[in-house]
Each structure stands twice: as C-alpha cells, then as structure tokens.
Amino acid sequence: MAIRKMTFSLPEALATRFLRRVPARGRSRYVAQALTDRLAEQDRQLIHACAVANQDPALSELEDELDVLASEGLEPWSDASSR
After folding, report:
1. Domain-embedded: residue 54
2. pLDDT digits (tens, 9 = 90+) for 15-39
3. How many structural domains is the chain composed of?
4. How many CA atoms lie within 13 A of 41 on its CB side?
5. Is there a domain that residue 46 lies in?
6. Residues 56 and 64 sit within 8 Å (Cβ to Cβ)
7. Is residue 80 part of a domain?
8. Domain extent at residue 44
9. Max alpha carbon distance in the chain (Å)?
10. What sign for the dihedral angle of Cα 26, 28, 30, 32?
11. pTM to 2 decimals?
C-alpha cells in the first residue's frame, strides 16, 4: 500500500490530548483509523439522505417531468441550424 505523508494543524488542546493518549508509534495508525471511520459515517449519512430523497413523491414527479423534456428532442444549444 502506498503511503503519503501529510501535515495537519490541530487546535492546541486537541493536539495535547492526542499526544498524551496515543503512543508515538501508533499515531499514524490512529489518525488513519479515525479518518476511515469518519468518512464511512459520512458515506452512510449520504446513502441514507439519498434513500429518503428517492422516496419523496414530489422529487419523483420532477424527475418524470425532466425525463419528458429530455425525450422531446435535442437540447436547444445542440442544433442551432434549425432556428
């Protein structure tokens, strides 16, 4: 696995807590796991929000209207010679 070194800035109080609680040899692994967990949680929240939005009847109606418009022909800017 490729590794990339990065530099981050942290508020002083958070940095102090981190340095006190996490041994020096485990800090990169700790940060990597924390980022993995947080990004996975954001993915779960996004998936849930999409699922909720997809159940909205008003959104479904809007999608149907847009599908009709798209199937009616070319976009107005794609066939300037027909004007």
Report:
1. yes
2. 999 999 999 999 999 999 999 999 9
3. 1
4. 6
5. yes
6. no
7. no
8. 40-66
9. 72
10. negative
11. 0.64
Measured distance CA(65)–CA(61) in Å, rounded:
6
Gap between the Cα atoms of 12 and 68, Å rounded: 56
What's the token pair of residue 19? 């340095």
Question: CA nearest 34: which of 14, 12, 13?
Answer: 14
Residue 42: pLDDT band (50, 70, 90) is very high
Rounded Cα distance between 83 and 77, Å, is 10
What is the rounded CA–CA span in Å between residue 11 and residue 37?
Answer: 21
Tokens for 40, please give them: 């996975």
> Do residues 10 and 18 touch, judged by C-beta distance below 8 A?
yes
Residues in CB range of 59: below 8 A, 6 or more apart: 53
In-domain check, residue 45: yes
